[in-house]
Amino acid sequence: MNKHLQVLVELSKIDKQIDSFNPKIALVRKELDSKIAEKNATLQNIQNLQKQIDTLQLQVNESERVIGENSKRLEEIAKKNQEVRTEKELRALNIEEDIAKENLNVANEEIVTLQNRQKEKLAEAQKLQATIEEIEKGIEEAEKSVQAEMQLINKEQEKLSEQRRNVVGKADSKTISFYEKIRRWAKNTSVVPVFKQACGGCFIRLSDKTYSEVLSSNDIVTCPHCGRILFPSDRQTYKECLETSL
Ligand SMILES: [Zn+2]
C-alpha cells in the first residue's frame, strides 16, 4: 500500500478510537449527572414549599390585622355601652358587638388552620432537606468514581494522542490536511475500505478504472461518488471498519 495511504488508514483508526471516548465519558458521567439533576429538582421543590409557607404567612398577617381591628372595635363598643341612653341604641351596639366577636372567632380559627398548613409544609420541606443530604453523599461517591474512571480514560487518551502525533509525523502536511478536510464532513468514515469493487462509505460500485487505481495504490484515490479516501481491503478488514464507524 502507498505509504501516505497507509498513514491515513492508521490515522483514521486512531481518530475513531479517540472519538469512541465521548460516549464512554458520557456513560461514566451519567449517574453523577442524574444525581445532580435529582438534587436540583429537590431544591426547587423546597423553594416552592418555602414560597407556599410565605404566602400562608401573608394570610396569617391579614387575619391578625382583622383581629386587631375587631378588638379595637370591641373596646370602643364597651366605652359606648356606658354612655348608652336608649333601648334602641343598646340593641344597635349589641348587634355591632356580636358582629365584631364573630369576626374575631373566624379570624382566630383561620389562623389555626393556616398555621397547621404551614407546619405541614415545613415538615415536608425538612423531609426533602434530609433527602438532599443523602443525595449529596451519593454525588460525592459518584464524583470519586468519575474521577477514577476519568483518570484511566485520560491516560488512554494521552497514549492515543501520542500515537496520533507519531503517525502524523510520518506523512507530509499536504496529505494530512487533505484528510482533515474530508474528516470535517465524513467524520469517522473519511478513509473507507473497498470491498467487492464498492466504496465502503457510500456503497456505490466503482468503475473498473477507479477500482484498478485503488488496487495498484500508487496514489491516494478518492471515491468519485462521495469523495472519501479509498483503500483496498479483504472481507475481514471491511467488516471491522464498518463496525467501528458506527
Ligand atoms: Zn463513496
Can you walk me through this structure?
80% of the residues lie in helices and 5% in strands. The protein folds into 2 domains: 3-169, Helix Hairpins (Orthogonal Bundle); 173-244, no CATH class. The model has no long low-confidence stretch (mean pLDDT 94). It has helices spanning 3-19, 21-83, 87-170, 173-186, 208-216, 235-245, and strands spanning 191-195, 198-199, 221-222, 229-232. The protein is mainly alpha-helical and 246 residues long. α1 (3-19) runs antiparallel to α3 and α2 packs antiparallel against α3. The structure holds zinc ion. Residues 199, 201-202, 204, 223, 225-226, 228 line the site of zinc ion.
Structural class: mainly alpha
| Percent of residues in helices | over 70%
Largest β sheet strand count, sense and barrel closure: 4 strands, mixed
CATH architecture of the largest domain: Orthogonal Bundle
Number of strands: 4
CATH class of the largest domain: Mainly Alpha
Could you tell me which ligands this complex binds, including any ions or cofactors? zinc ion
Measured between the Cα atoms of the first and last residue, the distance is 25 Å
Strand order of the largest sheet: 2-1-4-3
Low-confidence stretches: none
Number of domains: 2
Write down the overall mean pLDDT: 94
Return the CATH topology of the largest domain: Helix Hairpins
- Overall geometric form: rod-shaped
Note the beta-strand portion: 5-15%
Q: Roughly how many Å is the radius of gyration?
A: 40 Å
Number of helices: 6
- H/E series: HHHHEEHEEH
